[in-house]
Amino acid sequence: MSQPVITPDLTMEQILKIAPAAQRALFQRYHVGGCSACGFQPTDTLAEVCKDHNLLDVAEVIGTIQRADEVDRRCQIDPAEVRGWLERGEDFTFLDVRQAEERAQLPLERAEPLDFADTARYMDLPKDRRIVFACQDGQRALDVASYFIGHKFTRVWSLRGGALGWAAAQGAARTS
Q1: pLDDT tens by residue, 79-93
Q2: ∠ CA 7-71-106 to the nearest 5 degrees?
Q3: What pTM does this model have?
Q4: Which of 113, 115, 129, 163 is deepest in the core (most CB within 10 A)?
Q5: What was the pLDDT predicted at 149?
Q6: How many CB atoms lie within 10 A of CB 82?
Q7: Based on the domain organization, do 121 and 56 belong to the same domain?
Q8: What's the number of domains the chain is made of?
Q9: Burial class for 83, CB neighbours closer than 10 Å (0-12, 13-18, 19+)
Q10: DSSP secondary structure letters along 49-94
Q11: What domain range is 63 assigned to?
């Protein structure tokens, strides 16, 4: 897979189109772009974002963005592995970040709904706690996993394919 061509004069909107995982990677590495205090505008160039956040090595930032897909792959976990942990009774936290309507349509057995109103409950977990986040297709869970990684959690994953991947893996397991 070829690296996306990223230059300092590209806007963040342009960068996010060619490297969708860039925002997660920037937040994980530099705490940039994950919240209102460290955010940027779509029209800001990469050079402006680097200047605003005192990131002096723009080439290093570009490298981080180019490695963003690798970062995303590392923090994804296959449904079969999570199912195995559940079957073996292993100790971990399995959190569903979807809205109630989505959870009702396609439930994830044994996944606890993430209580967005009680963030301290999760931020107070041990930083080495195994945590798996799930959403509908895996994308929002990547954002949440990235947020936790950015807050120094070390054993955090996003369920690859989300609830859709979970259901597909369950169906495949039944037919084999």
Answers
A1: 999 999 999 999 999
A2: 120
A3: 0.72
A4: 163
A5: 86
A6: 24
A7: no
A8: 2
A9: middle
A10: HHHHTT---HHHHHHHHHTHHHHHHHTEE-HHHHHHHHHTT---EE
A11: 12-72
